[in-house]
Amino acid sequence: MIPSFSSSNTFRLLALIPLAAASVSAQQIVRGPYLQQGTPDSVVVRWRTDVPTDTAVKFGQNPAALDREAKTKWKTTEHVMMLEGLTPSTKYHYAIGNAEKTLLTDANTHFVTSPPHGTRQPIRTWILGDAGTASAKGNEGLQAKVRDAYYKYSSNRNTDLWLMLGDNAYTTGTDAEHQIAVFDMYRDMLKKSVLWPTLGNHDAGSAASVTQSGVYYDIFTLPTQGQAGGLMSGTESYYSFDYGNIHYVCLNSQDADRSPNGAMLTWLKNDLASTKQDWIIAFFHHPPYTKGSHDSNTEKQLVEMRMNALPIMEAGGVDLCLTGHSHSYERSFLLDGHYGTQDTLTAKMKLDAGDGRLDGKGAYKKATLGTGINEGAVYIVAGSSGKITGESDKNKARGFLDHPAMLVSLYRLGSMVLDVDGNRLDATFLSEEGERLDYFTMIKGGDMKRATPSSARVPSAKTR
Amino acid sequence: MVGLKAHGDDHLVIEALTEELIRAPEADLFIRRGELFRHHQEWAKADADFLAAAKLDPKLALIDFVRARTWLEAGEPAKAQALIERYVAHVPNEPEGWFLRGNVHAASGQHERGAEDYAKGIARASSPRPEHFLRRARFLAAIPNPDPTRVIAALDEGIAQIGPVISLVDYALTLELEQKDYPRALQRITTAMERAPRREGWFVRQGDILVLSGRIAEAIASYRAALTAIAELPERYRDTVPIEKLARDAHGALARLDSKP
Predict the structure, then answer these.
(1) Tell me, what's the ipTM?
(2) Are B21 and B33 in contact (CB under 8 A)?
(3) A308 CB within 8 Å of a chain B CB
(4) Element (H, E) at A380
(5) What is the sign, positive or negative, of the torsion defined by CA atoms of B92, B94, B98, B100?
(6) Do A263 and B131 touch (CB under 8 A)?
(7) CA quadruple B192, B195, B196, B200: dihedral positive or negative?
(8) Is B165 exposed, middle or buried (0-12, 13-18, 19+ CB in 10 A)?
(9) What is the pLDDT of residues A107-157, one digit of tens each?
(10) In chain A, what residues touch B123 (CB-CB under 8 Å)?
(11) Which DSSP helix (H) or strand (E) runs through A104?
(12) Residue A392 φ then ψ, to 5°
């Protein structure tokens, strides 16, 4: 069944559906709570109720005595409450509801505020690309399997933050599709860890970046003024934020101006020049290098991101670039200066042609802890968190996974796990079965902090 | 049937839409399929689908918008013109229509009208983006014999509305320096520095403009402030190529100024 295209609304292709069950019962939470825009001293808590109510969040460090409260009087179904004046790196418990009563608090309604910017401590980030298949025909249960594999993998470790690389809700990013593929799917994680998304082409079916309106922009609260670190972008379409000693940069490769002197890339250049963090990780939807279900040699958005954004990113010291769009996993060598089609890749552009593995040819090393200009970046396509396109469909949607910039190319479901600790970054691609299908380490500046030998079963590099 | 190899699952969606259309032709399905063709630059197929949608639902104003956008992207703004005119006449309060008409005008060389349309779109948008103000300013700058004060005013309108976004500040500064309007450029830098996470680069720019203004003592102070800011950076930042260059620039400027009689 193809979701219907709204013909009653002349521009918003599929409008926000406030709540189908509005008349069923009173004062029930039908979405969330979910955390947004975390900073060392604040976090935004959002949720949706079935009927308009006022808004109240009780919170505190003792779950038995939530001694602080934030509230507003006006009635709404879309509750957005910023909790301010928090202490960095501190665990808070919370309960949501209204002046009359608490509607929800449970074992997962807690969060840890971000550490002060620049803090070097272990940081775990979970990354999902093209996850939003939910129960779509032919993909039943896949998204949940990928989720559950990560939950098991990280069961003894708090997820500090998580990223969604676009196509968060198939097929056209409607509110109802987001409900199933995001809010129902990741209910527990949303309560306790801040989600930072980027816009994919499918999400754009119900969102218009040109006016920052539509479902994606309605349901997410993203920084426009540099509230979470970084340079103000003036738009939710692209933004940056700091977590500990990592500077994250989210670009809009879908429908923002990708020209070199456009607003987004002008901002990018200045944002990268402004950061003081040890690590810079960029994420957006369309991969600069892929031969999966998309082709970076020919497709406009991919070509423009590679030709226009990558030179700025590499000169600005980006270490890692995370993308989706192709429903596969592809991971590059440590690269610099490859802005053309795949046939223009030279050996010189591979700053390290090894596998980046401590138990292989060694970690990727960058001389500068901080902004290492043109010291290389690893490019990852991680667009298989909800499905693999074309596995049984050779020569149609499926590419040949033969981009020469890529060391590892897999048609496997999975998600990425990033662990940063000081000057060391460990990246893992975790399958829906819990296997570590790929991993590598990057070390910046001085000596590595510590080496953790991998005992996991890992396929050889360049597996197809 | 669609020739969209290596375009992800789009061809699967197109095939599903095609099957659906065979069963029950609906305007919205034709538009969805047309949009996929547009995305893959198959302009004629896209337009054919939009026309098929128009036959099924002639009152659907959106069709004019998507057809106009298709022809503009295809590099044929003349074909887009009448369509977008009709769209904004039908739906005058949709900002997207004005932005698209502005782009059509600009692509036809009518930058003044393009800028006017962007102003109308901005006025109707609940959250205009930096791009809107920047594009409007660039359209104004592309008019024959442009008036820089109008361009700067358009940028300042954006800064007032959405804050000192770097793309707007940078362009305004460039224009003010071209105009040798150093007092305004210096004021702009002062404002930008108030919110900047790092200020060393701004101090050097400030010093450069102060030199151009003949305010040498202040310029020296500014370059020194830049060197102080650089010295206060963590070592790992001081040792980077751009910061070393910035420090060299500041030292060089100070040496030149010190050697002046």
Answers:
(1) 0.82
(2) yes
(3) no
(4) strand A378-382
(5) negative
(6) yes
(7) positive
(8) buried
(9) 999 999 999 999 999 999 999 999 999 867 778 899 999 999 999 999 999
(10) none
(11) strand A102-104
(12) -110, 30
**What CA dihedral angle connects B95, B97, B102 and B107, to 10 degrees?**
150
pLDDT digits (tens, 9 = 90+) for A240-271: 999 999 999 999 999 899 999 999 999 999 99
Judge whether residue A459 has pLDDT over 60. Answer: no
Dist. CA B72–CA A297, nearest whole Å: 23
| Spatial distance between the Cα atoms of B256 and B251, rounded to a whole number of angstroms | 9
- The answer to whether the CB atoms of A276 and B126 lie below 8 A apart is no
**A71 by DSSP, 3-state: which?**
strand
CA distance A278 to A123: 13
Q: Which amino acid is at B150?
A: R
3-state secondary structure of B18: helix
Partners of A417 in the β-ladder: A126, A428
**Tokens in use for B113?**
């009208």
Mutate to test the interface with B, among A293, A301, A375, A423 (most CBs of B within 10 A): A293
Task: Please list every residue in chain B whose beta carbon sits closer than 8 Å to the beta carbon of residue A262.
Answer: 131, 134, 167
Q: A64 φ, ψ to 5°?
A: -85, -10
d(CA A196, CA A163): 5
Q: How many helices (H) and strands (E) does chain B have?
A: 15, 0
Sign of CA dihedral A310, A312, A313, A317: positive
Show the tokens assigned to A398.
Answer: 């499926």
Quote the CA–CA distance of B152 and B155 in Å, as a whole number: 5
B166-178 helix and B130-142 helix, angle to the nearest 10 degrees? 20
User: B195, A226: Cβ pair inside 8 Å?
Assistant: yes
Least confident of B33-42, B190-199, B250-259: B190-199
Of A5, A11, A7, give the one whose Cα is nearest residue A207. Answer: A11
Hey, are the CB atoms on B196 and A237 less than 8 Å from each other?
A: no
Contact A273, A313 (CB under 8 A): no
Residue A61 — φ and ψ, nearest 5°? -85, -20
Size of chain B in residues? 261
Residues 98-157 of A with CB under 8 A from B: none
Q: Name the amino acid, one letter, at A42.
A: S
Q: How confident is the model at residue B6 (pLDDT cuts 50, 70, 90)?
A: very low
For residues A216 and A173, is the Cβ–Cβ distance under 8 A?
yes
List, as ranges, residues 399-438 from A with C-beta within 8 Å of B. 399
The verdict on a CB contact (< 8 Å) between B134 and A262 is: yes
A210, HSE (Cβ side, Cα atoms, 13 Å): 18
Compute the distance between CA of residue A252 and CA of residue A222 in angstroms, rounded to an integer: 13
Residue of A nearest to B118 (CA): A210
Q: How many helices (H) and strands (E) does chain A have?
A: 7, 24
Whether B134 and chain A come into contact, CB under 8 Å, resolves to yes
**Cα(B203)–Cα(A272) distance, integer angstroms:** 18
Q: Are A262 and A304 in contact (CB under 8 A)?
A: no
Closest by alpha carbon to B218, among B173, B169, B257? B257
Residue contact A326–B8, C-beta within 8 A: yes
Cβ burial of A212 (10 Å; 0-12, 13-18, 19+) is: buried
Q: How many CB pairs under 8 A join A and B?
A: 171
- CA torsion sign for A249, A254, A259, A261 is negative
Instruction: Name the burial class of residue A263, with classes exposed (0-12), middle (13-18) and buried (19+) by CB atoms within 10 angstroms of its CB.
Output: buried
Cα(A228)–Cα(A224) distance, integer angstroms: 9
Comparing CB atoms, the residue among A232, A275, A293 nearest residue B6 is: A293
pLDDT class of A450 with cuts at 50, 70, 90: very low
The total of other beta-carbon atoms located within 10 Å of residue B46's CB is: 26
> Which SS3 state, helix, strand or coil, does residue B158 take?
helix
Interchain pair B8, A276: CB under 8 A: no
